[in-house]
């Protein structure tokens, strides 16, 4: 039986302050005040996930536990990030599970790094490679705000030039502008029969990576696009949201064979 | 540094036998033969993920490591199952991570059960509830073929009548025809501020569950549909696959507040 | 053999002034000047569709012949309008062709009125019904700018209260918030076996209209949604436009039987 | 006032024989019998669109007036055809209206030919070009079954080699595997400022045609894909149809400038 006693927030815990007109990711500090257009909110000494908080203007907010969509979407961005609609499928296609040892290039703002780190857990390992120091530092800061992830290895490295420097990965994902330049190195880093994935906004990029994968001994290549629509359920009626995202990118996946040659 | 020595398959290990014209999920047994329309394949004593195997008709197959799409889609089905395009988003929206304690009703054929079990790992816990013994047994068999998951609790129970009997869940997912009937019980089972999710093929079901969630103290309700298209990259050209799945269901998510009353 | 001599624009002719950074619907008047952020353009005495015009800032514009997308999308709007992705399918589902006698409620801003009028031509007839005088006047002005359409009958009338007052229509389209209230009248106005169509943003509206049509002797009911994505072909790559319209409305069609009773 | 007297079918008139389990395109002949799995149907001497007909097994069918979707989709096919979701948009983008003079290559099975012919009417003109005699003959037969279309010019010709041989077209559509090879000829055939359209299943085709259009003096190039989903409204609930068409092709449009050179 799991405890149903209130789980009080501790100093530094992340939470969502939610109101139909506002959705903020904050970090708990007793007595801290937060100002919104709906009035000021003060967070008391004893507060639990799920609790209501009333603002100075009489508006009720709720303290929610941030899920992985919240935390990955609300990283401080210095790059475009991978969206949940893609990140979810990446986890399944790459077989990222608790205890897995996975790799990622580039780190970007750390949105996927955070998701990978959450799923593999402390008995797993995430190697995240990034060429640009400022991106790596920002991503690291992002994750530090979310908790302690000593099983994430932050590697500042130009993989195209230097290779990965590791082998035996259970899964590897490439989120770089020219993934095809890393395919040969990716072959070395991955275990046999495991999945390499990449995301590219343009079809030309996908085709080049696809071709490189075929040449370097990857098989079962497949490309997907994922669309997500929000459906609005309102008193005046039910319909999809009128405007939104029509395209983020194409996902390409394939498995490493043990023959590094054209298949 | 992770080992790059060949990872030989052991008796009972699952693998994908892949050829562009065939994609089979099998379980390893040395010397075992497998018959396909592309000839007979024999699995030798020492075989690693990524290895090629040549059939009696001279066709080359590859031994791939099954990912979570393979394993969840290839359960023996007695029910419709949750597809990867939805399962991936469910993981992120529910915040299912390594070590989490999560619940699911109903078990169905165990496709999502397997995914949840893979992600939460041995320090986590999956409670899966199913009313129909034959479904529960089939799902249990499905997971047994994939490995040992002692952290899955298989519960034969009519949750609508008896409730969950547990509390303190980090996340809960409902895949039943009438999820609205379980919302009140779900409130009791979940920790505060955590996410309840459900999947329904029809909009009327979503609306009833949406209404029940509003009445029973859930907030930040949101509904999504997810579409996935495969893009074919072939010598003759690049285009989406011509026919396929246009709809599976609508996903509804919301967070439990600590006030079980209409919000 | 059709003439290939230059077709000079005449006073009042509509045209598109096009530049990759601007797309304007204008009406020709010799010597007229038009100011854009890319400089001033002057339209000379002899100008043909397809001709280039250079602005005062040295930018080349082209004089294009407006198509039905241009003209319908660029009406002066006092209401939301029907988009080309829906209007095209409406023409085919309703069998609107040259010479047809068709009806439409409400006129709105006249976007669909214009399309219907263009297709049925002078041997056809368009009856357009609108309750609100200001909408009717605006739509009429919109069409007057596009040409002379004496075969359009502009009817200021509350069809729900007064009925259509005509019979024998080859096709009828309802673009009103509560189409179900007009179904019984629509039955009277349409010829047997012909198609009634409607567009509604919300599913609840569609369901009510669907039900009314079943009750009032319509058959072969069908509902569609149409999505259109633009694909960008640019030097940096090919991909769908990132953001845009995800939903406008649901189209409902059905045919009148000669039995005005529940089928 | 339009006649509301029953419009009796005449010998040879097309009609839809409709039952929820069957949807047949037939041609009227008094006393004719038609056999279905729901029993035999006999068509009496006096029958009107909208009338019910009861089969020998007691099932009620309805006599519906075929719309343009029915007639275009039910041509006898020797080729793939253009679907309504695309044909509708083509009409609007090309500005095909009553009285227009339009061209089309290739004729294929005549589905689009029929639609163009219906819209331009007897004061318009459709030039349809097809290299393969058997396709042209089949398409011609298809239209003959639907009525008399003397304003359709059936041209057996290899346009790539011989050009169009006409000029002054108001609009032109290319439905051939290699539309880029016809762009230069299309420039000659079209009036200035008018629209050239094409449909291609693969992106590589679109890119080649796009490039050819830019080189040959076309401007305002745009590419679209159109998706259509059917929404099922049934007693058990409302949802999109589960499986269906995910892709037919990409539509490319652009307008002819009067400068046949790279823009």
Describe it for me?
Chain A is of the alpha/beta class. The first copy, chain A, has two domains: 14-66, Roll (Vcp-like ATPase, Chain A, domain 2), CATH 3.10.330.20; 69-256, 3-Layer(aba) Sandwich (Rossmann fold), CATH 3.40.50.150. Chain A has seven helices and 15 strands. Chain A has helices spanning 68-73, 84-94, 111-120, 133-146, 159-162, 183-189, 203-215, and strands at residues 14-19, 22-27, 33-36, 39-42, 52-54, 60-64, 101-105, 125-130, 152-156, 169-174, 190-200, 218-234, 237-240, 243-245, 250-256. In chain A, the strands form three sheets. Chain A has an eight-stranded mixed beta sheet, with helices on both faces. Chain A has a four-stranded antiparallel beta sheet with strand order 2-1-6-5, with no helix packed on it. Chain A has a two-stranded antiparallel ribbon with strand order 3-4. In chain A, strand 3 (33-36) and strand 4 form a beta hairpin. The model of chain A has no long low-confidence stretch (mean pLDDT 96). At the A-C interface, helix 7, strand 13 and strand 14 of A face helix 7, strand 13 and strand 14 of C. Strand 12 of chain C pairs antiparallel with strand 12 of chain D.
Key traits:
2 domains, homotetramer, 15 strands, four-stranded antiparallel β-sheet, about 260 residues, about 25% helix, 7 helices, Rossmann fold, alpha/beta, eight-stranded mixed β-sheet
Indicate the topology.
The structure is a homotetramer of 263-residue chains.
Chain A: E1 14-19, E2 22-27, E3 33-36, E4 39-42, E5 52-54, E6 60-64, H1 68-73, H2 84-94, E7 101-105, H3 111-120, E8 125-130, H4 133-146, E9 152-156, H5 159-162, E10 169-174, H6 183-189, E11 190-200, H7 203-215, E12 218-234, E13 237-240, E14 243-245, E15 250-256
Parallel strand pairs in A: 7-8, 7-10, 8-9, 10-11
Antiparallel strand pairs in A: 1-2, 1-6, 3-4, 5-6, 11-15, 12-13, 12-15
């Amino acid at each position: 039986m799991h405890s149903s006693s209130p789980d009080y927030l501790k100093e530094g815990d992340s939470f969502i302050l939610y109101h139909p007109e506002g959705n903020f990711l904050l970090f708990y500090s007793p007595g801290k005040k937060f100002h919104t257009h709906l009035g000021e909110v003060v967070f008391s000494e004893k507060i639990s996930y799920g609790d209501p908080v009333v603002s100075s203007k009489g508006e009720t907010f709720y303290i929610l536990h941030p899920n992985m969509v919240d935390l990955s979407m609300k990283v401080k961005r210095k790059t475009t990030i991978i969206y949940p609609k893609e990140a979810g499928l990446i986890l399944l296609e790459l077989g990222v599970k608790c205890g897995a040892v996975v790799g990622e290039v580039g780190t970007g703002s750390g949105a996927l790094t955070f998701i990978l780190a959450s799923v593999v857990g402390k008995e797993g390992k995430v190697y995240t490679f990034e060429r640009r120091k400022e991106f790596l530092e920002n991503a690291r800061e992002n994750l530090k705000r979310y908790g302690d992830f000593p099983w994430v290895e932050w590697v500042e490295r130009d993989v195209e030039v230097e290779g990965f420097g590791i082998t035996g990965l259970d899964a590897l994902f490439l989120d770089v502008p020219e993934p095809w330049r890393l395919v040969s190195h990716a072959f070395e880093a991955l275990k046999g029969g495991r999945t390499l994935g990449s995301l590219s906004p343009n079809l030309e990029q996908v085709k080049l990576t696809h071709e490189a994968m075929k040449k370097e001994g990857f098989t079962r290549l497949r490309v997907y696009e994922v669309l997500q629509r929000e459906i609005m359920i309102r008193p005046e009626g039910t319909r999809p949201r009128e405007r939104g995202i029509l395209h983020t990118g194409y996902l390409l996946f394939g498995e490493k064979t043990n023959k590094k040659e054209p298949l």
